């Protein structure tokens, strides 16, 4: 008999994810903070641009985590243990192959990225130094998406927590040693991340060791089954297109901000850390939705699917209330800690109100993402993201000329609202899918 969907089960899945995700914005804050101690805006902007370009490139393949959660959780819910192991093998093969491809293609990729970037020559030079080091951990970083998705699908989120605490804790320690201790600057931040990502992959493989004890993970006929691969390709391609639109929005946001000068670019980079905190906090409950909705759909239990969606979304709503209040009260102090440059501090405070609003306007988009990933309703995700991106572009055209950087922030929040509304309109069709035969 299937386990009941309870508040405690949701929290048991979500809290380790929230704790592990908490180390990620802390890492981003430390990366920004250590170079911020240099007292200049350019290094902050360089780490910001370098990190967002590489993260953007890597996260184009974030479908590996999302698709792995949806497909593995549905296989687990249907009792297909062999397919669960085979999914891990597919994810590792795809992740490692993609990472090697990125290393080989780094020259044209970096050239294209900097063609799009309007940053100053000083910022671009420092960002290039950062990226040329970090790219060599691409196979580890992308393969970890698959490992993370596989662990989440099986409700083993404490394993995800262990990986993130180890990887980000080591990264932070090495940041302090390489940048503040040895004076390696932007290159030291990149080297710290390189070492941490490869060590995280090794730990992840060890945590998945029970999957390698059976024969299914190395059964070529099962791993390379055409029907399974076709379904995986369909799910992942939809998520890839959806991610392209989302990343285009965030990368264009940073580049448009750079048009307002290095100080505004640095301020926006600091404020984005607040947005990342929001996303990572909500991810705990969105990931719980992915797991529980996927398992319920695999078992073809509509009531269980609905209860999974409701309980995870309820806890997501509670978390955004807490975040919004914390940002309003403590946001100014956090900005002052993250940079010692007075002009950057003042600029960031001018736009803090958008970070207070972001959790409230973005909660529906984040939670529906989790629900739709678990159900592998990826075509809906793709189409609604395309519509939301179109609205974002229209908002930029209307709001940026009269309001400048304020218009840029308003456009981003409008995109979140549209994503939540459009996915909500598609939810009834998702729930009805549970009544259909597998």
Walk me through this protein's architecture.
- The protein is mostly helical.
- The longest helix is centred in the middle third of the chain and has 37 residues, at 262-298.
- The mean pLDDT is 88.
- It is globular and about 60 Å long.
- The protein has one domain (7-435).
- It is 85% helix and 0% strand.
- Helix 3 (63-77) packs parallel to helix 12 (262-298) and helix 12 crosses helix 14.
Number of strands: 0
| Rg (CA only) | 21 Å
What structural category do the secondary elements indicate? mainly alpha
Q: So what's the overall shape?
A: globular
Order of helices and strands: HHHHHHHHHHHHHHHHH
What is the mean predicted local confidence, pLDDT?
88
Proportion of residues in helical segments: over 70%
Output the number of helix runs: 17
How many domains is the backbone divided into?
Answer: 1
Portion of residues in beta strands equals under 5%
Short description:
The protein is an all-alpha fold and 438 residues long. Helices cover 85% and strands 0% of the residues. The mean pLDDT is 88.
Helix-strand layout with pairing:
Layout: H1 7-36, H2 41-59, H3 63-77, H4 81-104, H5 106-116, H6 121-134, H7 138-153, H8 157-181, H9 185-207, H10 220-223, H11 226-258, H12 262-298, H13 302-338, H14 342-350, H15 352-374, H16 378-403, H17 405-432
What key phrases describe this protein's structure?
mainly alpha, 438 residues
